[in-house]
Amino acid sequence: MKKLLFLLMLVYTISVFGNLVTATEFQLKDQFQKEHTLEQYKGKKVYLTFWTSWCGYCKKSLEDLKVLYEENGENKKNIIFLTFNDEEEAKLKDVIKEKNYNFPIINDKIMFYKYYIDSYPTTYLINEEGKVVQVISGYIEKEEFKKLIKDQNYKVEIEE
């Protein structure tokens, strides 16, 4: 009976966690007025992070992201960095200018609902097929992030 129960639990776990969820599509412009869609990034890894300017861990996370983007950003590696914010446009512009953020930032409240964001920062790792491979709620150290995206489910070349 124990073996049967174990086998049933194993089958259930594989069926639940074996199927990856397709990331929610979007068509939005960043602060540079460049349009972004998940469809255009098929074949590439996508890193999405949701943040606010009042969140201390978000600030730290964005400083790390700024460095990672400069090292590995658009047209340098096979990873796309996109960030989402849901604050007033004027406030967001001030933050971008003050911090000199050069990575794409998309201001859209609806995305926070579509991706079920309830804590900050929240990060989605999306594979080449547009499937969500991991969701991280909270801050993750830059070095830890480098290790995470190098693993077998999310292989990306990152400069050391």
Fold and architecture overview:
The structure is a single chain. The chain has 160 residues and is α/β, with parallel strands linked by helices. The chain has a single domain, classed as Glutaredoxin. The chain is 37% helix and 23% strand. The protein has helices at residues 2-17, 56-72, 89-99, 109-114, 142-150; strands spanning 21-22, 27-29, 35-37, 45-51, 79-85, 105-107, 122-126, 131-137. It has a six-stranded mixed beta sheet. The protein has a two-stranded antiparallel sheet with strand order 2-3. Helix 3 links the parallel strand 5 and strand 6. It starts with a helix and ends in a 10-residue tail after the last helix. The model is unreliable at 2-17 (pLDDT under 50). Pfam families: AhpC-TSA. This is Thiol-disulfide oxidoreductase resA.
Summarize it.
With 160 residues, this protein is an alpha/beta fold.
Could you give the topology of this structure?
Layout: H1 2-17, E1 21-22, E2 27-29, E3 35-37, E4 45-51, H2 56-72, E5 79-85, H3 89-99, E6 105-107, H4 109-114, E7 122-126, E8 131-137, H5 142-150
Parallel strand pairs: 4-5, 5-6
Antiparallel strand pairs: 1-8, 2-3, 4-7, 7-8
Attribute tags:
single chain; 160 residues; alpha/beta; Glutaredoxin; six-stranded mixed sheet; two-stranded antiparallel sheet; 8 strands; globular; disordered N terminus; Thioredoxin-like_sf; antioxidant activity
Percent range of helical residues: 25-40%
How large is the share of residues in beta strands?
15-25%
What is the N-to-C succession of helices and strands?
A: HEEEEHEHEHEEH
Looking at CATH, which topology would you report? Glutaredoxin
Mean pLDDT: 81
- Rg calculated over all Cα atoms: 17 Å
Which structural class do you get from the secondary structure elements?
alpha/beta
Alpha-carbon distance between the two ends: 51 Å
**Can you count the beta strands?**
8
User: Number of DSSP helices?
Assistant: 5
Domain module tally: 1
Write out the CATH superfamily name.
Glutaredoxin
